[in-house]
Amino acid sequence: MAKTKPAPVESETAIRVRALEAILIEKGLIDPKAIDALVDTYETKVGPRNGAKVVARAWFDPAYKQRLLADATSAIKELGFSGMQGEDMVVVENTDSVHNVIVCTLCSCYPWPTLGLPPVWYKSAPYRARTVSDPRGVLKEFGTILPEDVEVRVWDTTAELRYLVLPKRPAGSEALGEEALAALVTRDSMIGVTVL
Ligand code: FE
Question: What CATH number is given for 46-191 in this structure?
């Protein structure tokens, strides 16, 4: 989505962090480009690869998938991913009849241990509002057009509960091993704005 209007209300912590960042930049102690690169790394590279491993294991091992859907926090922890912003996880499975999308309507709650840092658009006011009022319209902006008979379920992430979408395993991936499967999984498919 192109629209990236910042959230209207900033928390006190966010304001403090920004003030601190401004001072450090002014004093020449940090390079804003380096910070951007670091954030990008956690947004798109390091973070979501953990979630991809969880998804690949679920596709590969039916018993693991059962555990994941029954108690996501524990099953994710089995693979070594746990901690802040991932204490209470729920995994929702995409099927031929149901497609799941996650959002945080209030702010930007997101499962850090499995997906890393939330992308800018996830935190934007339009995404937060429109995913609830017009989920198919938002999906379309991501190039995702689902058949009319597929039910779209929107899950509102909170500070207490964080969701991860288990995407449908791509057709033709039957012969692939776990590592190759993980390479197919994208961040956006685990947020539910795209399909694989
Ligand atoms: Fe939030």
Answer: 3.90.330.10
pTM: 0.82
154 and 103 Cβ atoms separated by less than 8 Å: yes
Q: How far is the C-alpha of 74 from the C-alpha of 3, rounded, in Å?
A: 36
Query: What sign for the dihedral angle of Cα 144, 145, 150, 153?
Result: positive
Tell me, in angstroms, the distance from the centre of ligand 1 to residue 128's CA. Answer: 10
pLDDT tens digits, 132-189: 999 999 999 999 999 999 999 999 998 889 999 999 999 999 999 999 999 999 999 9
Residues known to be catalytic: 104, 107-109
CB 52 within 8 A of CB 190: yes
- 174: which DSSP letter? T
Domain ranges of the chain: 12-43, 46-191
Burial string for 96-111 (b: 16+ CB within 10 Å, else e) reads: eeebbbbbbeebbbbb
171: CA distance to ligand 1 center in Å? 34
What separation in Å is there between the alpha carbon of 157 and the centre of ligand 1?
A: 7
Give ion ligand 1 contacts, CB < 5 A. Answer: 104, 106-107, 109
